[in-house]
Amino acid sequence: MRSLKDEAGHFRSFLVRSLVTLVIPQGYTLSIAGSFALAVHRYGYPGEREVVLFVGGAVVAFIGLAIVAEEGFSGVIAALPMGLGALLNAVPLLVVLGVAGVVAVVPSILAGFGLAGLAGAGGYVIAISAFFWLVHRFELHALS
Fold first, then answer.
1. Long-range contact list for 87-91, CB < 8 A, 24+ apart?
2. Domain ranges of the chain
3. In which region does residue 44 sit, left (phi positive, over 0), alpha (psi from -120 to 50) or beta (all else)?
4. pTM higher than 0.70, yes or no?
5. Which tens digit of pLDDT belongs to each residue from 37-72?
6. How far is CA 2 from the centre of its chain?
């Protein structure tokens, strides 16, 4: 039977695995939910067209970035950082602030919802990639 100290360490290992597993989807969820909430606050409750445009904007951002990144598929795909630095993901705050700026200057409800989806999804993918790249560079520098 494990001691209480061993069990606490074992639990922490599951906690770390859960945090590492959720760092990207948790941030994406917060970014998208925040982006949608800002669009609703600015333009009011959406109808079907606005929802489709929001999701469409997010899909266009994702596909556009996949096309831009296509060359990267032929090489080695970077491993994500796994340390505490990678878990300090405040990227959704930056994304939501950026989307707030977008919806503040776009008067059209249709364009606004589409651009909120585009900026929320695309902004998160770009910002989290930059964040992980910076964490990786910092970790490399710390090791040398």
1. 87/19, 87/20, 87/23, 89/23, 89/26, 89/27, 89/128, 89/131, 91/27, 91/31, 91/124, 91/127, 91/128, 91/131
2. 4-143
3. left
4. yes
5. 999 999 999 999 999 999 999 999 999 999 999 988
6. 38
The one-letter amino acid at 139: E
| Long-range contacts of residues 114-117, Cβ cutoff 8 Å, at least 24 apart | 114/53, 114/54, 114/56, 114/57, 115/57, 116/35, 116/36, 116/38, 116/39, 116/54, 116/57, 117/32, 117/35, 117/36, 117/53, 117/54, 117/55, 117/56, 117/57, 117/58, 117/59, 117/61
Other CB atoms within a 10 A radius of the CB of residue 109 amount to 18
Radius of gyration of the CA atoms of the chain, in A: 19
Q: Which DSSP letter does residue 45 get?
A: S
Nearest CA among 43, 26, 19 for reference residue 99: 43
What are the DSSP calls for 53-95, one per residue?
HHHHHHHHHHHHHHHHTGGGGGSPPPPPP-SHHHH---HHHHH
- Mean pLDDT, residues 13-20 taken together: 91
User: What is the three-class DSSP state of 100?
Assistant: helix
